[in-house]
Design goal:
Layout lengths: L1 E6 L3 H14 L3 E7 L2 H11 L3 E5 L7 H10 L5 E6 L4 H9 L4 E4 L4 H29 L9 E11 L12 H8 L2 H12 L5 E6 L5 E7 L3 H18 L4 E6 L8 H15 L6 E5 L14 H12 L2 H17 L4 H17 L8 H10 L3 H12 L1 H22 L6 H8 L3 H12 L3 H19 L5 H7 L5 H12 L3 H6 L1
Parallel strand pairs: 1-2, 1-3, 3-4, 4-5, 9-10
Antiparallel strand pairs: 6-8, 6-9, 7-8
Helix pairs in contact: 2-3, 5-9, 7-8, 10-11, 10-12, 11-14, 12-13, 13-17, 15-17, 16-17
């Protein structure tokens, strides 16, 4: 609901404008009417309206003085000037006081409709910027999450990622290249009621989407996300997770709530499955890790002997057991970390780090993919002699195809390597990760085009280098260059 205050010394005119607004739309509500600028200042302090329509000539305090004081107070309401044709000089003064527009007396219905539409769009864009700022700049802190009317959900395609750099993960590819973002938008619009306000943002990385709902009850939230989940199940083939908050939060707690949902998702999602998970503030469940079973003991003994064939056989059976038991992601991570320690303690020369395990889980969304990763790790010694020549070809391929939606998995499959192993040896040789190198190529191409074609739209440049979302492109540009796109254009 967009709230309004009318400041007009003629009560009949004020009532007529109020009645006309309410008859035209349900999005706007006139909260109050003031007879002059002094009365209006008192009502602003109490009502905090989104929009103010003010006359210019009024007793006690006129509209110009009223607007000037408002701006000095730091108030950001949309100001609409109400005036007669003979008062154009006053209108010019009003515009200097940062009024967004004006209406001539008598108010014409079509002109009012056009103005309300303009206000609606501008306020939505303002709120979108506000929500994005809170989402991207806030994180888990010692401060409590304040209750409010905002309901969040995080949607992950593929696995819930366990690494910082997620731009090359399979989930990001699905969002950006397979039109799943548009598909999700259609699903959300189909099941959203007319009263519900919905925001659909790229998450802190390209691997996820964050949905924010307003004007929806606690009971309807659960029903809403069940419908989204069921619709996605019908349309998607790969695993995904929908993690939502059942209790509303304040806008200032959006970033914190998002961080909590991501942490909760890692703990509660079942690997390789389609997950619908509700976060509750009173959740106190601790991670329950089963003791190493016989398979892991047999695996440890095989590693101590260095019997690669036996290791692969036991590992395959163990992962199949995890699959049958519908293992949670974090528990699976603990199992794989144990296997990593077995490898490090064995006679095998393979060096595998904890970050490699996180990369494996982030790159994989099936147990077969995990096994393939470990299979390549176990065969690492045989592959090392061919790595240098292969990496040169990979680097050249990236340079020729950086505008395309490349992923670690696609590159690894093309060149016959496991994704995590490829990432490891590429960074070791070139001193930079594949995703970072890819980002650098994209940013340099964007900077070149902006310099050569300054009139070109940011959206067009983003699409040309492989970013469907211009806001996400802006974040990447700022992170990589230290400057916002607007700052670059001003140079």
């Amino acid at each position: 609901m967009i709230t309004m205050l009318i400041v007009e010394d003629e009560p009949a005119i004020a009532r007529a404008i109020k009645k006309l607004i309410h008859s035209l739309t349900s999005d706007f509500m006139v909260q109050g009417i003031a007879n002059n600028g002094k009365e209006a200042l008192e009502q602003v302090k109490i009502l905090h309206p989104d929009v103010i329509i003010t006359d210019i000539r009024m007793p006690v305090m006129d509209g110009i003085e009223f607007m000037t004081i408002l701006r000095e107070m730091g108030e950001e309401e949309k100001l609409i000037v109400l005036s007669g044709c003979e008062e154009f000089d006053y209108v010019k003064q009003a515009m200097k006081a940062r009024a967004m527009d004006y209406l001539l007396k008598p108010v014409i219905q079509d002109e009012l409709i056009e103005l309300l539409d303009k206000i609606r769009v501008e306020l939505k864009e303002k709120k979108q910027r506000w929500l994005l700022r809170e989402l991207y700049t806030s994180d888990i802190s010692e401060e409590g999450i304040k209750p409010g009317d905002k309901y969040l959900a995080a949607i992950f395609f593929g696995s819930v990622p366990m690494i910082e750099d997620r731009s090359m993960l399979p989930g990001a590819y699905c969002w950006n290249s397979l039109n799943y973002a548009e598909e999700l938008e259609r699903i959300l619009k189909d099941i959203t009621s007319d009263d519900t306000v919905m925001w659909n943002f790229v998450g802190k990385t390209a691997v996820e989407r964050v949905i924010i709902l307003e004007k929806i009850s606690n009971e309807d939230v659960e029903m809403f996300w069940h419908r989204v989940f069921e619709d996605l199940k019908k349309r998607l083939q790969l695993p995904f997770s929908v993690v939502y908050n059942q209790s509303g939060v304040d806008i200032g707690s959006i970033g914190q709530m998002h961080a909590v949902l991501c942490k909760f998702a890692l703990k509660e999602t079942h690997f390789g499955a389609q997950n619908l998970i509700c976060f509750k503030n009173d959740d106190t469940d601790e991670l329950q890790l089963a003791e190493d079973g016989e398979e892991l003991l047999y695996l440890r003994r095989a590693m101590q002997k260095g019997d690669i064939a036996q290791i692969k056989d036991i590992l395959s059976r163990f992962l199949e057991k995890c699959k049958q038991e519908n293992c949670k992601t974090e528990i699976l991570y603990q199992y794989l970390e144990s296997i990593r320690m077995y490898i490090m303690d064995s006679i095998l020369k393979t060096n595998i780090r904890e970050s490699d395990i996180r990369m494996i889980l982030s790159n994989s969304y099936t147990y077969e993919m995990i096994f393939s990763e470990f299979e390549d790790i176990l065969n690492q010694e045989e592959k090392e002699k061919n790595d240098d020549s292969t990496l040169g070809h990979i680097k050249k391929y990236i340079e020729n195809h950086y505008k395309e939606p490349l992923t670690n998995n696609e590159l690894a499959n093309r060149f016959g390597l496991a994704p995590s192993y490829l990432c490891k040896i590429y960074k070791k040789k070139y001193g930079i990760s594949i995703s970072r190198y890819l980002t650098q190529l994209k940013i340099e191409a964007a900077k070149k085009r902006m310099a050569e074609e300054p009139e070109c739209l940011i959206k067009e440049i983003a699409l040309d280098i492989g970013y469907k979302d211009q806001y996400y492109f802006s974040k990447v540009f700022k992170k990589e260059t230290g400057k916002w796109l607007t700052e670059f254009f001003e140079e």
